[in-house]
Amino acid sequence: MSRHCASPEATEAAGEEFARLLEPGDVVLLSGPLGAGKTTFVKGVARGLGVRERVTSPTFTVVREHHADGARGIRTLLHADVYRLGSLDEVVDLALGELVEEGAVALVEWGEVAAAVFGEDVITLEITPEDDARTLRVGGAAARDRAGLAAWR
Ligand SMILES: Nc1ncnc2c1ncn2[C@@H]1O[C@H](COP(=O)(O)OP(=O)(O)OP(=O)(O)O)[C@@H](O)[C@H]1O
Ligand SMILES: [Mg+2]
């Protein structure tokens, strides 16, 4: 399941439309090299979830919590970046898995590094850059049979 995005705006729009597929409890692991567009995608997701605050890279804070407008029961967007964490224990300590159970979704940049912490029941979003274009590829057990995903591509 993949989608081609020719500009940062297209990647953000892909995120905004992707937000419609999300359900409370979802964990989305974002992967792709430095500057791939992970944060850009999350900005779009935030817009789609009705987050009013500005979304910036959580590199130094590790996790930012944004209030969402509650569409489809999603009240909180947890935006994490685990790039700087030194060990999987530190990712475990973030307790994202438990936090999403309370009406939240979690989007985790560099999530593939910590995939073992989150188990199988996740959505993966892999971004492959090529010049100014990006290919977004969705996978993971939680994405299987997700209504609307076919239309998102
Ligand atoms: N098609 C595109 N989609 C997304 N970003 C693009 C695209 N083309 C160019 N860019 C540029 O790539 C950069 C993506 O930055 P962004 O912070 O979203 O990446 P990131 O994957 O979060 O990086 P990091 O690994 O540092 O967290 C921006 O400067 C953006 O303008
Ligand atoms: Mg980023």
Give the structure's gist in a few sentences:
With 153 residues, the chain is α/β, with parallel strands linked by helices. 26% of the residues lie in helices and 27% in strands.
Describe the structure.
With 153 residues, the chain is of the alpha/beta class. It has a single domain (2-145), classed as Rossmann fold (3-Layer(aba) Sandwich), CATH 3.40.50. The protein has helices spanning 8-18, 38-48, 88-93, 96-99, 115-118, 149-152; strands spanning 2-5, 27-31, 63-67, 76-81, 104-109, 123-130, 133-139. A 7-stranded mixed β-sheet has the order 1-7-6-2-5-4-3. The longest helix has 11 residues, at 8-18. The mean pLDDT is 95. Adenosine-5'-triphosphate (ATP) binds next to helix 1, helix 2 and strand 7.
Keywords:
153 residues; alpha/beta; Rossmann fold; seven-stranded mixed sheet; 6 helices; globular; binds adenosine-5'-triphosphate; binds magnesium ion
Helix content: 25-40%
The strand order across the widest sheet is 1-7-6-2-5-4-3
Name the bound molecules.
adenosine-5'-triphosphate, magnesium ion
The name of the CATH superfamily reads P-loop containing nucleotide triphosphate hydrolases
Number of helices: 6
Strand content: 25-35%
Task: Compute the number of structural domains.
Answer: 1
Helix/strand/pairing category = alpha/beta
What is the gyration radius calculated from CA atoms? 14 Å
CATH fold title: Rossmann fold
CATH architecture: 3-Layer(aba) Sandwich
Q: How is the main sheet built?
A: 7 strands, mixed
Which sequence of SSEs, written as H and E, runs from N to C?
Answer: EHEHEEHHEHEEH
Note the quaternary state here: single chain
CATH class: Alpha Beta
